[in-house]
Design brief:
This protein has 114 residues and is α+β, with helices and mostly antiparallel strands. The chain has one domain: Aminopeptidase (3-Layer(aba) Sandwich), CATH 3.40.630.30. Helix content is 29%, strand content 41%. The protein has three helices and five strands; from the N terminus they run ββαβαββα. Strands 1-2-3-5-4 form a five-stranded mixed sheet. The structure holds coenzyme A. Coenzyme A binds next to strand 2, helix 1, strand 3 and helix 2. The site of coenzyme A (COA) has 17 residues, from strand 2, helix 1, strand 3 and helix 2.
Amino acid sequence: MGCINTTQADPVAGRFYLGLAVAPEHQRKGYAWEAGILLLGYMFGERRYQKAQAYVHDFNEVSQAGMLAFGATLEGRLRRHDFFAGRYHDNLIFGLTAEEFFAAHGSTGPQVSG
Ligand SMILES: CC(C)(COP(=O)(O)OP(=O)(O)OC[C@H]1O[C@@H](n2cnc3c(N)ncnc32)[C@H](O)[C@@H]1OP(=O)(O)O)[C@@H](O)C(=O)NCCC(=O)NCCS
């Protein structure tokens, strides 16, 4: 069980935010990777969005590594952005352009012939 979603999709700027979660008992099976590649390929290749962004907390090393593996770049750090579990946490912003995605993963769109 898990989910992947886009939020704040702005068709004029061509930007959207990406969110991912996989239930603990289903993690480490490649589901987040597969879902992320599918969603990014759809948004860039079919819907003409040109940039994906994601917020990742400073302690979330798995998601930071995942965003970098998708081809994203760390673009910013919102310091002391959230408070929970007794302390403040920074929130990191990752950005990925369509060109960077296709360079890293190739086109995932349909092959059109003729
Ligand atoms: C982040 C999350 C979505 C990853 O889901 P997942 O299905 O387990 O990820 P995958 O199996 O596709 O793994 C993707 C990569 O991360 C690595 N990875 C996944 N979980 C890991 C862990 N606990 N420790 C170290 N590496 C891990 C995998 O090894 C894989 O890298 P690889 O292909 O080089 O081996 C999941 O851990 C989760 O839901 N966490 C809680 C919610 C969250 O943090 N969401 C993101 C908020 S920005």
